[in-house]
Amino acid sequence: MRKRVETYLRGFFERNSRYFSHGGRLYPLASLFEAIETIFFTPAIAAGKAPYVRDGVDLKRFMSIVLLALVPPLIFGIYNTGYHSRLAIGSDLSFFSVVATGLKIVMPLIIVSYGVGFFWEALFSAIRKHPISEGFLVTGLLFPMTLPPTVPLWQVAVGISFGVVIGKEVFGGTGRNIFNPALTARAFLFFAYPARMSGDSVWVAVSGAASSAVSAVSGATPLSITTLAPGFKTFESQLHQSGFSLTNLFFGLYPGCVADSSALCCLIGALILIITGVASYRIILGGVAGLLVTSFGFGLISQAPLNPWININPLYHLLAGGFAFGIVYMATDPVSAPGTTASKWVYGFLIGLLTVMIRVINPAFPEGVMLAILFMNLFSPLFDVVEIRIRAGKRIPNV
Amino acid sequence: MKTVRIKKGWRFKIAGRPTDQQEIRLASQTVALVVDKLPFVKPLLLVKEGDSVNIGSSLFSDKKNPDIKFLSPGGGRVSAIHYGPRRVIEEIVISLDKSENQETFDAFTEKALDHTSRDSLIAGLMTRGMWPLIRQLPFRSIADPKSQPSAIWISLGSADPFQPLSQVYLKGQEEFFTFGVRALSRMSDRINICWYGDIPPGFDFLNESVTHRITGEYPATDPGVVLYHTKTTPAENQDWYINGQDVIGIGKCLKTGVYPVDRIVAFSDGTPENSRHLKTRTGIRLQDLAAGLSIGPDKQWIVGGILSGDATASDKYLDLNQTSIMIVDVSPQSEMFGFLRPGLHRLSRSRTLISTFSSALLPVNTDMHGEIRPCINCGYCASVCPVDILPQFTCKSLWADEIEEALAYGLLDCVECGLCSFVCPSKIELAECLKDARKHYHKELNQVA
């Protein structure tokens, strides 16, 4: 059976390759054809230069591992989205119906993101005559996972277009972008359509007519609770009362973006990425350290907090909101992160530091990880330059 | 004895390591002196086709320094001089006759050696054809006889398991080795002898002379790597180095007065049955090394180490100073859904394949295992580079023609081990880029106005 499928597919690609080869009618789409063909068959190319033996890893596998690491938060996100949607309208919460509802809400976002993004990717590849990069498979999935489930599909399309074209292709494509394209896309939506990206009424998607009836139920995210309500002695007890105990924040069953609420799933993803060596543990650990140290420091110096998040057990900062997702999947994008080892620690640490600062000092943004990562993306070439200079200075000159 | 631990590098998990068994391989009809692989040599021919030569007759000298002679690895008749593109001499082929005559040179006694001046010893090595075996860092060119190195590095053994074992080629040659070291010590105040790993029993005579014990993975034993990790001043950058087997050659040549052509080669065809040490001669035709084996035409022959070596073919000849021949499969047919497979039998240094978690030796082929992509700055190359040159940034500055920048990053410390190209998931030819840049820089430095 497998043999027959393989023979058939080989024949199919062989027959059709002439249309896409030089001089063929569909030559402009050669990169698209090649991208599809290489998904089915790893190309057999002999090494033409020394070394004549090459490592078995390629960018396809590298990116596939990231996709694999995204599976736990994605599955949980689908469940979580469905769960809160059904909870809001009071339907039954049996596992399969929750997953079905979740799929109905999340899949359109992913399909639109992949579809529109892939169009731009293919267009630029066709014009520039370079192969379609696998990096897009990650960008196209990361982006919808960081959106509120209520976001209109046209905004997904606009966002991913901005992310791919302005965030990546204008710089020259994969490997040359300064910012993480998925985060660029999200930041664009965040500032262009704030009403759909923040506030208390965007985190629970309810379908159809029932939506107006339940808007009052729509949940707040933990970070959007920024005042200590009367009747509570401590902010922790208030969060606990609102359903945001540390345990719940860790498991992630609370309203939020599609897939960034569960710290547990991000931890699983982080382990996959670190064990396989695809993501830098330096960035992740540095980020966690930066976040914990900064929030602990704020707790020490602030006696009369403006924002109760300033004086809280640092673990709340770690588990609430999108920090875990951002530091594991967004900050570790190798292209927009620094390439040298010490810089990675600094870069991660400063992301953690900035995240807390934005969260507790700036009243306009309850969440800070997106802006913190984008800001540090901007600085990562500088970190590299500094570290390379220092390292070059330590060498015994050889000219 | 100082222990030098090299932390970066990579342990080959490649099947077909040569065993320490030895077999003899004789040249069938022809041997040749390979010319175009000699680094930065412009040959000035001293023979023409049809001339009869002895073992040790001069075949050509270097245009830049006509005293440096390159001698014939066989006795017989110059049957062909092969030219490549732009009339570059590729090899000088000699058909052997039955009684191979030998040129004889003056033999040295230990006393005579100690009383010879440095200059006349160098001149003696040049006429005896042994000089091209002494190389000079950082360009790995043939040593400049007018320079005074701060040290000469002798490497015994290799972290590359496809190179001959030092205990195999040293056995029975201790006397010549010591004589060779004695001769080298006339040329530099410091002789650094590096041994890879522990000195096995039976080689106690080395205990006193070995100065550096090297541990670590490939390419830890490369003299450039050891030098990088031990040097304290820029003056050491131009040190000379020589392979242990060539020290034996120098000792033999000076002591007996004949040009030595015997050589031990580590041979591997990827199978444990056929991979072993071969006792043979320099300049042998490569297919003679594989005599008795059926090697198909769809094979890639690699000379000089699996990652740092050059492509060659069965009808080519063994280079003057090469000691390793490897035959690997060329890339097989494409694999369906290759990137989804767990990769149980695919070699990788990264941890993205299951094979990482087992220590089994794996077969290799010449497949790229992927297509060329832009650099994503993953840092794999920097994490293996034994001399810390950050290959990704160095190559980027070279592509932007910023040679000064690349030199500051350590371009000349590069030992051309090939690990950066090997590990790159984007399949970028980093090693090629560094190698070319070094070559061009050498050319510019040595340009005569």
Please describe what this structure looks like:
- The complex is a heterodimer of chains A (399) and B (449).
- Chain A is mainly alpha-helical and 399 residues long.
- Chain A folds into three domains: 2-40; 59-216; 231-386, no CATH class.
- Chain A is built from 17 helices and one strand.
- Chain A has helices at residues 2-20, 30-40, 59-89, 95-128, 135-145, 153-165, 181-192, 194-197, 210-213, 235-241, 246-251, 263-275, 281-301, 314-319, 323-330, 341-361, 369-394, and one strand at 41-42.
- Mean pLDDT of chain A is 87; it is low at 209-217.
- In chain B, helix 10 (391-399) runs antiparallel to helix 11.
- Chain B is α/β, with parallel strands linked by helices and 449 residues long.
- In chain B, a hairpin with a 4-residue loop joins strand 10 (135-136) and strand 11.
- Chain B folds into two domains: 1-262, no CATH class; 370-448, no CATH class.
- The mean pLDDT of chain B is 90.
- The interface between A and B is large, with 56 and 76 residues.
- Strand 1 (41-42) of chain A pairs antiparallel with strand 21 of chain B.
Please give the count of helices of chain B. Answer: 13
Question: What would you call the shape of chain B?
Answer: globular
User: Main sheet of chain B?
Assistant: 7 strands, mixed
Taken as a percent bin, the fraction of beta residues of chain A is under 5%
Please indicate the count of domains of chain A: 3
Quote the beta fraction of chain B.
15-25%
Fraction in helix of chain A: 55-70%
- Total beta strands of chain B: 21
Helix content of chain B: 10-25%
Ranges of chain B where pLDDT stays below 50 over 5 or more residues in a row are: none
Sheet with the most strands: spatial strand order of chain B: 1-14-13-12-15-10-11
Oligomer: heterodimer
Distance between the termini of chain B: 46 Å
Using only CA atoms, what is the Rg of chain A? 23 Å
Structural class of chain B: alpha/beta
